[in-house]
Write a structure and sequence with these properties.
There is one protein chain. The chain is an alpha+beta fold and 80 residues long. The chain has one domain: RelE-like (YaeB-like fold, 2-Layer Sandwich), CATH 3.30.2310.20. It has 2 helices and 4 strands, in the order H-E-E-E-E-H. A 4-stranded antiparallel beta sheet has the order 1-2-3-4. A hairpin with a 6-residue loop joins strand 1 and strand 2. It is globular and about 35 Å long.
């Protein structure tokens, strides 16, 4: 995340705070990932933020943050 502009960093931190505060309501530009339980993506400009919500522990795990093509390659390696 250090390589991102401070504006993008702030936007991503804001999205993560929203998810932590109200994990049952997805932020704008978010969708569930097909085939993965409680795993979602949020579009932040050209970037994709991929995360998993554990409602039992009230935790959010960030699985990846990268451009569209790259982040899905990472996620497939992690989750498949």
């Amino acid at each position: 995340m250090r390589k991102l502009s401070t504006i993008k960093q702030g936007k991503i931190k804001e999205i993560l705070r929203e998810i932590l505060n109200i994990p049952t309501v997805l932020p704008p530009n978010s969708q569930a990932l097909k085939g993965y339980d409680r795993t979602f993506r949020t579009r932040v400009g050209k970037l994709r933020l991929i995360y998993h919500i554990n409602h039992d522990k009230k935790e959010v795990y960030v699985l990846g943050l990268d451009t569209r093509g790259e982040v899905y390659k990472i996620i497939r390696r992690l989750l498949d």
